[in-house]
Specification:
The complex is a heterodimer. Chain A is an all-beta fold. Helix content of chain A is 0%, strand content 55%. Chain A is built from no helices and twelve strands. Chain A has strands spanning 3-5, 10-14, 19-21, 24-26, 33-39, 46-52, 59-61, 64-69, 74-79, 88-97, 102-106, 110-115. In chain A, strands 2, 5, 6, 10, 11 and 12 form a six-stranded mixed beta sheet that branches. A four-stranded antiparallel beta sheet of chain A has the order 3-9-8-7, with no helix packed on it. In chain A, a hairpin with a 2-residue loop joins strand 7 and strand 8. The radius of gyration of chain A is 14 Å and the shape is globular. Chain B is an all-beta fold. Chain B is built from no helices and eleven strands. In chain B, strands 2, 4, 5, 6, 9, 10 and 11 form a seven-stranded mixed beta sheet that branches. Chain B has a four-stranded antiparallel beta sheet with strand order 1-3-8-7, with no helix packed on it. In chain B, a hairpin with a 2-residue loop joins strand 5 and strand 6. Chain B is globular, with a radius of gyration of 13 Å. Chain B starts with a strand and ends with a strand. Classes of the chains: A mainly beta, B mainly beta. Chain A binds chain B through residues 32-33, 35, 37, 43-47, 50, 52, 91, 95-109, and chain B through 2, 31, 33, 35, 42-45, 48, 50, 55-56, 58, 88, 90, 92, 97-108, 110.
């Protein structure tokens, strides 16, 4: 069975602080994909990043960076110099290949509140 | 804007009723997925269609059904509604049916069952 755990239910920071959102996953697949999605207060789910299990290079995109460590089954997300607009719920997800299709298995989400 | 459209945005109905949620995928995407987001269950996969055929099924109740039409739009039908069916229902689409495909989500339909 596949599982994603986001142990941090809610994090509050002050603007310009760095913040790291943790994600730990479980899977028996040797090939898998990990994703992060953002859900702002407006409710839609916004795709942020996809990472495959063979690529352990860290990725940086502007103020966002991701640290994938296969040895600890973690795929953590860091926001540098946080801004109020970063306030949202962030979901980590694992792709699950099924016999003829696929699905995303989501963690419970981490609510990030950035205060000015 | 992800390019995935869902209608209606909000739906309020009574227990025992039946509703239909509609989704149009991004141009060029052949796969459509349905997810349910509720406070107690979180984001849960319901069902996937690819080019008109059902491909994967998750924790979808027997009272729920879906289909994908030749023009690739999809409908999720919820019947004999119960209070616990109140949730945000998302549709997502992707190009193919393999797990490396990013899924792009629509804005969701918020269903309230009174």
């Amino acid at each position: 069975a596949q599982k994603v755990t986001q142990a941090q239910t809610e994090i509050s920071v002050v603007e310009k602080e760095d913040v790291t959102l943790d994600c730990v996953y479980e899977t028996r697949d040797t090939t898998y994909y990990l994703f992060w999605y953002k859900q702002p207060p407006s409710g839609e789910l916004v795709f942020l990043i996809r990472r495959n299990s063979f690529d352990e290079q860290n990725e940086i995109s502007g103020r966002y960076s991701w640290n994938f460590q296969k040895s600890t089954s973690s795929f953590n997300f860091t926001i540098t110099a946080s801004q109020v607009v970063d306030s949202a719920v962030y979901f980590c997800a694992l792709s699950g290949q099924m016999e003829y299709g696929n699905k995303l298995v989501f963690g419970a989400g981490t609510i990030l509140r950035v205060k000015s | 804007d992800s390019g995935v459209t869902q209608t209606p945005k909000h739906l309020i109905t009574a227990t025992g009723q039946r509703v239909t949620l509609r989704c149009s995928p991004r141009s060029g995407d052949l796969s459509v997925y349905w997810y349910q987001q509720s406070l107690d269950q979180g984001l849960q996969f319901l069902i996937q269609y690819y080019n008109g055929e059902e491909r994967a099924k998750g924790n979808i109740l027997e009272r729920f059904s879906a289909q994908q039409f030749p023009d690739l739009h999809s409908e999720l039908n919820l019947s004999s509604l119960e209070l616990g069916d109140s949730a945000l229902y998302f549709c997502a689409s992707s190009v193919g049916t393999t797990r490396n495909n990013e899924q792009f989500f629509g804005p969701g339909t918020r269903l309230t069952v009174l």
